[in-house]
Amino acid sequence: MPEVADVFRRFAGRYLEAHGAAMLPSHRRAIADLLACRTEALGGQLWGCDDCGIQLHVFHSCRNRACPKCHSEQTRAWLEQRRAEMLPVPYFHVTVTVPEELRSILRRHQVDGYGTLMKTTAGAIIDLARDPRWVGGTVGVLAVLHTWTQRLVFHPHVHCLVTGGGLSDDGMTWHPAGKAFLFPKSALATLVRARFRDAFARLCPEVALPHHVWHIPWVVHITPWGAGQQAALDYLARYAFRIAITNNRILSVTDASVSFRYTDRATGRRRRETVSGHEFIRRFLQHVLPAGFHKVRYYGLWHAARRRQADNLRNTLLLEQPTAPPNGPAVTDPAQVAPSGDPQDPPLLRRCPHCQSGHLALLRQVSPARPQGP
């Protein structure tokens, strides 16, 4: 099956010839990493089977966060860390989307624009929830930035996982939210828009926008997400480490075009889209975030400064609930795990994927070759 890396191997050279001088460093790095990922350019290991004698080269991954072949192990480890932090309460899923008239500005001012969007969205959620009419306490907010649609169109929006309840200012009382209602989404849309306008004007005073832009309604969705820690982890698995497109959505790569599948939101049906190789790379790269930008951020009860308070609250809420068996992921038999090429993987006993009876032994490390750019 074709992969995203195959698209870059075929078209990145011409794309760089056309746009290389004006490309962002993060975009050039993404291209280089995707081309080198799981190849001899990054080095790796040579494994041999003690039964059939087959030898397997396993190359290291690039660890670029835009790469569709990386981060599975990192994601699992991160989810396990978050499992210990989740409060045993219901949750809400809140989505705030930037209107089309502001998207080009965010694309030109990514660091300031994206950061302001995440901060103002979380702040507005926290302040509305503190209102006694709605929750009456400080909620926990985990915000995740996404910039794409399934067709890879630039569409910046923020997904927020919000606790279905808040802690009082004195830290003594937990105020649960309603089962199906957090606060009015129209109030959130208006508040986020006003705060984003003021904050962005302070950060980028040279950007002049027409006055009517700030009267366009922002799209907000607030959905009950489910009760308990597992619902929160399902959210995290779905949104926190998602990238613009995965390898299994690439249908074909020719000398001129790339075809991929997407789900039409209006009909729920899967559809096929074919674009030129140049256009696919353009769409893909516009979702590569600036170096060092944190796409997952914590606010309210989940802010690092309130970690001890959140731990005490979690213990209190757990004591009030009946004991239930943990609902964790199944543990994989180490003998079934194939080498990943990650130098940080533990030296597990690995079954040979060729004969299925022998086990693989590490023969030697493979030194990285000189990275081959496009």
Question: What are its keywords?
Answer:
single chain, 14 strands, alpha+beta, 2 domains, 5-stranded antiparallel β-sheet, about 25% strand, about 375 residues, 4-stranded antiparallel β-sheet
Count of individual helical segments: 9
Net shape: globular
Main β sheet profile: 5 strands, antiparallel
Distance between the termini: 21 Å
Radius of gyration: 24 Å
* Structure classification: alpha+beta
Tell me the number of structural domains. Answer: 2
- β-strand number: 14
Q: Element order, helices and strands?
A: HHEEHEHHEEEEHEHEEEHEHEE
What is the subunit arrangement here? single chain
Mean pLDDT figure:
88
In the predicted model, the low-confidence regions spanning at least 5 consecutive residues are 328-338, 343-348
Strand order of the largest sheet: 8-3-5-4-12
DSSP strand content: 15-25%
- Which range best describes the helical content: under 10%, 10-25%, 25-40%, 40-55%, 55-70% or over 70%? 25-40%
What does this structure look like?
The strands form four sheets. Strands 8-3-5-4-12 form a five-stranded antiparallel beta sheet, with helices on both faces. It has a four-stranded antiparallel beta sheet with strand order 2-1-14-13, with no helix packed on it. The longest helix is centred in the N-terminal third of the chain and has 21 residues, at 110-130. It has nine helices and 14 strands. It is 32% helix and 23% strand. α3 (72-83) runs antiparallel to α7. The chain is α+β, with helices and mostly antiparallel strands and 374 residues long. β9 (250-253) and β10 form a beta hairpin. The chain is globular and about 70 Å long. It folds into two domains: 4-66 and 336-344 and 354-366, no CATH class; 74-244 and 287-319, no CATH class. The relative contact order is 0.22.
